């Protein structure tokens, strides 16, 4: 009878793990995309050269810490000499195409960011845990969905998967050294397969040097791995069937058996996610997100920031109308993860201490024995207007800023102090109650023609500024609609950079009775 073989599905990519160690990757471009390519290349131990007239902060850091070579100019054709791979990440599509054509002439594999037809290969959404790399490709059809799929796969992996691989790698090497004969390769493989297929991954992760000696002994003595009793602080081992079963063990201390790099207690970092643009994360925030075991995220963290996270992301479950229950849900999960000794990042919009309940969270975790670290973020209150061309102070126009919340405890409206002409008022969480808030301002003698702006989704690709005055803004927003999150800015600084007539008027601060500030 004829044998039947699988039919190829076709249309996929050849998925391989490219050994690029010590080879040269040339990256053309100095922005955020280039930075993410550089990170991938360094993760694979490649020698990285970046060619770009300017570098974003992350690449400046990598250059100053000698991780990359930098040619501070535009690409020239001779850059391709002695180059094993080229990645372009520039906005000039024509130049990208030209570089890709040159690479093809020289048979150098090339990837041009966002120009699929020029790419010899694509980057995949990857998860990394020690030597374990999980990569998801959608063959460039849905890269964003690939991130989500990768996150889901990563979160389903047992804890310690990467360590388990390291330990098996060590044991495999020891067995080969002890029994190098090629004719025994099948025996070596069969013996190790019993460990790899049946032992719980968490248990493999906890193998220490003594355990590896014991296992090696069992191999040399020709004992089944199932018969080996390993003393660990886990309650499972193997029965003679090879499946996990409870076992009596010699008690040992955690210190003896745990991974020396693992903290006894977990670590919590409160990280400010900034306003929404991942390029505006601090270098430290980026590092914490990359090193986290789990990220507990506020609901409104924009997708591009979430996209840079490789580990599991947990967002508070929804409790309609009950924000405090969502907060408790995050506290509960945080404590669970910390008890497992994990690095937990609590990711908050903007800055954790500006209407972010950051202080409360510190007090809560401190009460439970954990002292969180804090990584500040760009706050929407100051940087939101700034990103939309509104300086919250401006010499001769505004010498003070007052930040208020439009939804205080129990949903109360803010207490607005009397009008000061040189003050910029920023009100968060208030656009939904815009009309009522404007009334409150009027009650405090704020003039009807005072410039007022609504700053929406600052730092996101769809940021927008809606401008009017105290008397017109509510009507304008009703007409044009509102995209949350947004904030209100009121004061003479609102139009100072956008309206030439106003600039003239304010060139002489005396016309407003304003005093100048240095
Ligand atoms: C609970 S407060 C958190 C503020 C945050 N901790 C910060 O420092 O930006 C949420 C409010 O911040 C404002 N907000 C947050 N992100 C924003 C953005 N990208 N653009 C405009 N306003 C934003 C909105 O008023 C929103 O209702």
UniProtKB/TrEMBL annotation:
Domain Siroheme biosynthesis protein Met8 C-terminal intervals: 158-223
Annotated stretches, region: Disordered: 234-262
Biased composition (Polar residues): 234-252
Pathway membership: Porphyrin-containing compound metabolism; siroheme biosynthesis; sirohydrochlorin from precorrin-2: step 1/1
EC identifiers of the protein: 1.3.1.76
Compositionally biased tracts (Basic and acidic residues): 253-262
Domain spans labelled Tetrapyrrole methylase: 267-473
GO biological process: methylation; siroheme biosynthetic process; sulfate assimilation
Pfam families, per the entry: NAD_binding_7 (PF13241), Sirohm_synth_C (PF14823), Sirohm_synth_M (PF14824), TP_methylase (PF00590)
Transmembrane segments: none
One GO molecular-function entry: uroporphyrin-III C-methyltransferase activity
InterPro entries, per the entry: 4pyrrol_Mease, 4pyrrol_Methylase_sf, 4pyrrole_Mease_sub1, 4pyrrole_Mease_sub2, CobA/CysG_C, Met1_fungi, Met8_C, NAD(P)-bd_dom_sf
Chemical reaction(s) catalysed: precorrin-2 + NAD(+) = sirohydrochlorin + NADH + 2 H(+)
Alphabetic keyword roster: Cobalamin biosynthesis, Lyase, Methyltransferase, Multifunctional enzyme, NAD, Oxidoreductase, Porphyrin biosynthesis, S-adenosyl-L-methionine, Transferase
Domain Siroheme synthase central: 132-155
The family this protein is said to belong to: Belongs to the precorrin methyltransferase family.
Designated name of the protein: precorrin-2 dehydrogenase
Organism (species): Coemansia reversa (strain ATCC 12441 / NRRL 1564)
């Amino acid at each position: 009878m004829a044998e039947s073989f699988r039919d190829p599905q076709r249309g996929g990519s050849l998925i391989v793990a490219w050994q690029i160690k010590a080879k040269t990757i040339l990256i053309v471009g100095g922005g955020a995309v280039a930075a993410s390519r550089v990170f991938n290349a360094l993760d694979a131990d490649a020698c990285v050269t970046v060619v770009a007239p300017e570098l974003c902060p992350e690449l400046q850091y990598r250059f100053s810490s000698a991780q990359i070579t930098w040619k501070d100019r535009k690409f020239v054709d001779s850059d391709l000499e002695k180059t094993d791979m080229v990645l372009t990440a520039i906005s000039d599509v024509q130049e990208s195409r030209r570089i890709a054509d040159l690479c093809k002439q020289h048979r150098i594999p090339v990837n041009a960011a966002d120009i699929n037809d020029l790419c010899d290969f694509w980057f995949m959404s990857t998860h990394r845990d020690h030597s374990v790399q999980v990569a998801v490709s959608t063959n460039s059809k849905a890269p964003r969905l690939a991130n989500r799929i990768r996150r889901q796969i990563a979160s389903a992996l047992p804890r310690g998967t990467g360590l388990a691989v390291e330990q098996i790698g060590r044991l495999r090497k020891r067995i080969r050294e002890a029994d190098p004969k090629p004719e025994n390769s099948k025996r070596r493989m069969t013996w190790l397969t019993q460990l790899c297929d049946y032992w719980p991954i968490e248990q493999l992760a906890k193998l220490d040097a003594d355990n590896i000696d014991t296992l090696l002994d069992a191999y040399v003595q020709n004992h089944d791995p199932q018969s080996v009793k390993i003393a660990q602080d886990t309650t499972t081992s193997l029965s003679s069937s090879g499946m996990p079963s409870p076992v009596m063990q010699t008690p040992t201390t955690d210190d003896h058996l745990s991974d020396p790099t693992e903290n006894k207690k977990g670590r919590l970092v409160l990280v400010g996610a900034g306003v929404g643009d991942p390029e505006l994360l601090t270098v430290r925030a980026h590092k914490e997100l990359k090193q986290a075991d789990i990220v507990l995220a506020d609901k409104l963290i924009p997708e591009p920031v979430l996209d840079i996270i490789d580990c599991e992301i947990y967002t508070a479950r929804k409790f309609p109308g009950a924000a405090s229950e969502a907060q408790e849900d995050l506290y509960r999960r945080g404590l669970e993860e910390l008890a497992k000794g994990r690095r937990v990042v609590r990711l908050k919009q903007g800055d954790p201490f500006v209407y972010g309940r950051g202080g409360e969270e510190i007090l809560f975790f401190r009460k439970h024995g954990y002292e969180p670290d804090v990584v500040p973020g760009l706050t929407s209150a100051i940087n939101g207007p700034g990103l939309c061309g509104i300086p919250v102070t401006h010499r001769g126009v505004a010498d003070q800023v007052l930040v208020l919340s439009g939804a205080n405890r129990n949903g109360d409206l803010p207490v607005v102090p009397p009008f000061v002409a040189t003050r910029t008022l920023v009100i968060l969480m208030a656009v939904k109650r815009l009309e009522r808030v404007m009334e409150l301002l009027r009650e405090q003698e704020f003039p009807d023609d005072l410039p007022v702006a609504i700053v929406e989704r600052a730092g996101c690709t769809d940021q927008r500024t809606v401008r009017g005055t105290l008397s017109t803004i509510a009507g304008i927003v009703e007409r044009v609609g509102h995209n949350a999150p947004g904030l209100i800015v009121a004061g003479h600084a609102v139009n100072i950079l956008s309206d030439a007539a106003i600039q003239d008027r304010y060139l002489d601060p005396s016309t407003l009775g304003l005093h100048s500030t240095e």
